[in-house]
Design brief:
Belongs to the peptidase C69 family. Pfam families: Peptidase_C69. One of its GO terms (biological process) is proteolysis. The longest helix is centred in the last third of the chain and has 34 residues, at 430-463. The protein is globular. It is α+β, with helices and mostly antiparallel strands and 477 residues long. The strands form five sheets. A six-stranded antiparallel sheet has the order 14-1-2-16-17-18. It has a six-stranded antiparallel sheet with strand order 9-10-11-12-13-15, with helices on one face. The protein is built from 13 helices and 18 strands.
């Protein structure tokens, strides 16, 4: 039996601007937690306060004083704040994108020297206390890093950042340690619930950032397993490499390399796959959508494929029933901030949902994406996309083609909608542009929901034929 951890698990992908087909920077992630746990999509307006504000977590009583100016930002919070906000991903008004978090795990040796802090900052607070208060990706890393060093963190996490110039990945370990690495412009990375960052070059602050005193901490506590002591491999010093990693985590990274760097020959359980990779082609937003929606297609490990029952359930897939939402934060080049950023959101399971494009420059979000209920409620975005998947699940072979046809049509439709919005939006600015992008976002949301409502109707009708209460009468009777 493979030992299990208390997973709040996700899968992430980052693409540098020279690695993409159109010069976009992309940070993306599946948010995986519970099979039916709705998400909202909201827009917080710019606010100026006369006094400093205080953030207090409803999860673990973490508290932090906040600046008096709070920038506009988008987010995808939980349907309830009972266990924390978990705003998870969004853009701010300065064009900074952030996705938090990719859950990771610190090894016991490190935890013995620097244990997690029960009331330190956790995933649920990170977007809320960082994104509205920064103007660049580097500034966001510095702010979060300073919070972790002073207040500690209750978890080990990976956090994705981007602005119009660069993309970064940051990892925390123990109670107060962290590093960050800039993704090379011509590179990409896939991450799956395991410490990913490898060798840190402390002589290259343009490409790496780190916690104050992290080298001294490792040396004092004898944590570096490198025999020569000449390298500082963050993954090996701080991370884990146990049996649960090889069945739960590494296969997802392997599949990403199989899709984008097939010349690399690793096994699904290899612990040596590189963090930074180069693709065999320029990657588009559709490639990233395909990765987040994947479940080992074309291999024996596909849960709905043709492998043996043992193979089909051997590894944890990338897209699975516990996905709450999937997002791609795309920043296009040579565009004004409001038009450059697109928050592609797939509510529910990415493999069964559709990525809807929402321009960052909008001022509001559609009603169907706000105030979700914890149980099925018709008309709400999360539950609409979730229902379609639930209806397909029992009869994937028979009904999957109907779902795929709708997804394919929407991909084309949304690409056309983005192209048209770009043409119009380049002629506008200020409030006029913001109003236009808000209208575009509302229309895109309606297009997706209308298509899935029609699909649901067809699935209900078709599913009736699979009822065990059906009876086929003999023509001779």
């Amino acid at each position: 039996m493979i030992p299990k951890k208390n997973f709040s698990a996700c899968t992430s992908m980052i693409v540098g601007k020279d690695a993409s087909i159109d010069g976009s920077i992309m940070i993306a992630r599946n948010e995986d937690s519970k099979a039916s746990w709705p998400k909202n999509y909201v827009m917080h307006g710019h606010q100026d306060f006369s006094t400093s504000q205080i953030f207090k977590s409803p999860d673990n009583d973490f508290q932090l004083p906040l600046p008096q100016t709070k920038a506009k930002y988008s987010a995808t919070p939980e349907w309830t704040d009972k266990f924390g906000l978990f705003e998870e991903n969004g853009f701010n008004e300065y064009g900074v994108a952030m996705s938090a978090t990719e859950s990771t795990y610190t090894n016991d040796l490190v935890l013995g020297a620097d244990p997690l802090i029960k009331n330190g900052i956790g995933e649920e607070a990170m977007i809320t206390v960082v994104l509205p208060y920064v103007k660049t990706a580097r500034e966001a890393i510095s702010r979060l890093g300073a919070i972790i060093e002073r207040y500690g963190t209750s978890e080990s996490n990976g956090i994705l950042f981007a602005d119009q110039n660069e993309a970064w990945y940051m990892e925390t370990a123990g109670g107060h340690q962290w590093v960050a690495q800039r993704i090379p412009d011509d590179g990409y990375a896939v991450i799956a619930n395991q410490m990913a960052i490898q060798t840190i070059d402390f002589d290259d602050p343009d490409q790496f950032m780190w916690a104050n005193g992290i080298r001294e901490f490792v040396q004092t506590n004898h944590l570096n397993p490198d025999k020569s002591g000449s390298t500082f491999n963050f993954r090996r010093i701080f991370g884990t490499a146990d049996l649960s990693d090889t069945y739960y985590n590494t296969p997802r990274v392997w599949y990403g390399l199989k899709l984008f760097s097939p010349e690399q020959s690793f096994s699904p359980t290899s612990q040596e796959m590189p963090f930074i990779n180069r693709a065999n082609r320029k990657l588009s937003v559709l490639d990233v959508q395909d990765f987040l929606s994947s479940h080992y297609q074309g291999t024996p490990y596909d849960p709905i494929g043709e492998g043996s029952e043992a193979d089909k359930h051997h590894f944890r897939p990338i897209s699975l029933a516990k996905t709450q939402e999937a997002h791609i934060l795309q920043i296009r080049p040579s565009m004004p901030v409001d038009l450059a950023g697109i928050q592609w959101l797939a509510m529910g399971v990415a493999a069964q949902s559709s990525f809807v494009p929402f321009f960052a420059g909008a001022t509001d979000t559609p009603a169907a994406y706000q105030n979700a209920h914890g149980t099925y409620t018709p008309g709400e975005a999360y539950w609409t996309y979730k229902l379609a998947g639930v209806l397909v699940d029992p009869h994937y072979i028979e009904l999957g083609a109907k779902l795929k046809a709708v997804q394919t049509d929407l991909r084309t439709t949304f690409q056309q909608a983005v192209s048209h919005a770009d043409q119009v939006g380049r002629q506008l600015n200020g409030p006029e542009l913001a109003n236009y992008l808000t209208m575009v976002n509302f229309n895109n949301a309606k297009t997706g929901l209308d298509a899935y409502q029609k699909l649901i109707s067809e699935l209900v009708t078709a599913s009736t034929d699979f009822s065990p209460l059906n009876f086929k009468q003999d023509v001779n009777l």
